[in-house]
Amino acid sequence: MDLKQSIEKRTSIRNFTDEKIPVHDLKELVRRAGLAPSVNNYQPWKFYAITNKDILSKMAVKVSEKIKQIPSNKSIAAKNVKSQVEWFATFFESAPAVIAMAMEDYESVLEKGVDLSHDEINKMRNFPDMQSAGAAIQNLLLSAVDLGYGACWLSAPMIAKESLEEIIKIEKTYHLIAFVAVGKAVRDLQPKTKKSIDEIFKLID
Ligand SMILES: Cc1cc2nc3c(=O)[nH]c(=O)nc-3n(C[C@H](O)[C@H](O)[C@H](O)COP(=O)(O)O)c2cc1C
Q1: Closest CA to 185 of 33, 9, 1, 7
Q2: Quick check: 99 and 140 in contact, CB under 8 A?
Q3: Is the minimum distance from the CB of 192 to ligand 1 under 6 angstroms?
Q4: pLDDT, tens digit, for every residue of 141-177?
Q5: Across the strands, what pairs with 176?
Q6: Which residue of 99, 107, 128, 190 is most buried, as measured by CB atoms within 10 A?
Q7: How many Cβ atoms are within 10 Å of 82's Cβ, its own excluded?
Q8: Distance 111 CA to ligand 1 centre (A)
């Protein structure tokens, strides 16, 4: 599939068949994610592909527990909102694979020579760590389409970050950034309507 087709076909997939993903495909998805640009080419990421159903359900339980602990407001919608959010944060347990992305702090050139902390510099540069993560995750999502899979980016489960890091056994200097759930889509979905080019483009000539 060419790049334009992959971009235009991609949409978030949350319902998967039980078909397993061969390890060589998981590795290929991660290889392509790793080709993304990153701040100072630091490539601060590591990807953990989780296919074990018991581990995935353990992870989902931790996420559900955390969501249940969020204090609700008094609105009538409160209960529905929470159960909806819970589903969007835990559906990954039914995916054939979840690719968890973790990152370590990058070393910025500036912090070697100025009296500013890593966090201050990161904020000043508008979080290049997270920008790098986004580039890699998008590579992964588009590659999933290219290889005939569906995928969905998830940040909601990060509510249970510490527990998830323990379950996945994320290396000490790394911290979890996001999940990508991957598998064969139960059915092909139409990509969502997006803003028109006129709404999002401005030429500064
Ligand atoms: C940073 C980020 C975090 C997201 N987190 C979640 C999530 O936790 N759960 C979920 O179901 N979808 C999540 N999504 C998917 C978005 O809901 C989805 O991209 C959006 O609705 C647009 O739909 P599309 O991907 O089909 O174009 C996330 C997307 C991004 C970019």
Answers
A1: 9
A2: yes
A3: yes
A4: 999 999 999 999 999 999 999 999 999 999 999 999 9
A5: 102
A6: 99
A7: 14
A8: 33
Does the Cβ of 182 fall within 6 Å of ligand 1? no
pTM: 0.96
Q: Whose CA is nearest to atom 31 of ligand 1?
A: 153
Planar angle of CA 95, 101, 106, nearest 5 degrees: 175
Q: How many CB atoms lie within 10 A of CB 128?
A: 18
Per residue in 6-46, pLDDT (tens digit) is 999 999 999 999 999 999 999 999 999 999 999 999 999 99
Domains of the chain: 3-200 (3.40.109.10)
- How many other C-beta atoms are found inside a 10 Å radius of the C-beta of residue 98? 25
From edge to edge, which strands make up the β-sheet containing 175-183? 45-50, 97-103, 175-183, 150-154
What CA–CA distance (Å, rounded) separates 129 from 40? 10
